[in-house]
Amino acid sequence: MVTSPPASRRPSWAGRNYTLLTTAAIITNLGGHGALIAAAFAVLDAGGDGGDVGLVAAARTLPLVLFLLIGGAVADRLPRHHVMVAANTLNCVSQAAFAAVVLAGDPQLWQMMLLTALGGTGQAFFGPASEGMLLSSVTGEQAGRAFALYRMAMQGAGLGGAALGGLMVAVIGPGWVLAVDAAAFAAAGALRAFLDVGHIPRRAPGGGLLADLRDGWREVVGRPWLWSIVAQFSVVVAVVGAAESVFGPLVAEDELGGAGPWGLALGAFGAGTVGGALLMMRWKPRRLLFAGTLCVFPLAAPSAALAVPLPVAGLAAVMFVSGVAIEVFGVSWMTAMHQEIPEDKLSRVSAYDWFGSVAMVPLATALAGPAEQAFGRSASLWGCAALVVVVTAAVLLVPDVRNLTRRTQAVVAAEGPGAGAAPVDAVASEKPSA
């Protein structure tokens, strides 16, 4: 008697690559969220102040501004998983060295800035390659659910990493948390080395790096919904980043009791993102970007809560709501990118997206300390909240942001933005994720 094989417990679109990449993302998020807390408190434990915390945070993001566009072009030229593994290796080495100087005692500010900058360089090459892999991984019909599940797993790991990281910083110190992050990068890179990208068509030879960057730029500027939201997030990410990477630890240290409560607040944000991802596995808003952009407004709330400041319970509640909101935007944004951008240009367009999002972060984080001295911490945080509201309201004036609708098919070829190639089903279920 012939028996049928047992049914797979995974969805049809969650193939081997998707599973490997999701597992790797969980590992790096567990380590990375704790490491962000550890880096800030390593600076403070070494005698630094808010300005020094801001400089180290700026050192992490400055290489993103310098190398992201190159990273996107490279990721569309080379096998994306090779780029990801090389970037993970650099992140592993830099975090291990950071841990070593902290554990040795008396780390210098320049050492922490340099090692953090090396980690940012790895991220500049990893990010576009990773997002390109993810966006090319699923069918159009299941894209939103796949992205929500991936983000739920990633954010759930961030939730655990932030809570555990805050606790570990308080109990054993930031150096050991940084060492754990280095080990996480090593494990994740090993998993990504086993990815199969043989199904991705080889790019035809011709053109150079500058030509690739021009092609990506044309894809961006030809779509008002794309460039307007990238411009919006250049402000939103900068001010939210300054509030959470610089002012948050300072408020926690002075008003809330130190690293533990701040880790709890970040954990609440992570819990909110998990809740938002669960919501987006069921909810499929027809006007993707309109629904997503409305959910950017709550990102002003954490800055306002820190400005008051609210007690730990109130801050955690605000962070939870903002986590739900940003996840609705994130899944909607990825779904729009998936259905509108050709596969062979995904990493380059993603690089421009990332570039816009991080371009102002080094300036914002570096200026956070001087702004606190000039205007006061509370006024600076209220300014962050106001900027989020203003730029989000402005982007709703763009018709394409209000009107872009969900489709179940993805654009896979184009001569340029909006070119007339007929859309077809995105990709087979074995396409890899990030």
Please sum up the structure shown.
This protein is mainly α and 434 residues long. Helices cover 75% and strands 0% of the residues.
Written description of the protein model:
The protein is mainly α and 434 residues long. Helices cover 75% and strands 0% of the residues. The longest helix is centred in the middle third of the chain and has 33 residues. The N terminus and C terminus are likely disordered.
SSE topology string: HHHHHHHHHHHHHHHH
Helix content: over 70%
Structural class by helix and strand composition: mainly alpha
* 3D shape: globular
> Mind telling me the C-alpha Rg?
21 Å
Quote the average pLDDT.
Answer: 79
- Biggest beta sheet summary: none
- Number of continuous helical runs: 16
Poorly predicted runs: 1-7, 410-434
Total DSSP E strands = 0
Q: Give the amount of beta strand, in percent.
A: under 5%
Cα end-to-end separation: 41 Å
Task: Please specify the SSE layout and strand pairing.
Blueprint: H1 16-45, H2 50-77, H3 80-104, H4 109-135, H5 143-172, H6 174-192, H7 209-221, H8 224-256, H9 259-282, H10 288-294, H11 301-307, H12 312-340, H13 346-358, H14 361-375, H15 377-395, H16 399-403
Features:
single chain; mainly alpha; 434 residues; 16 helices
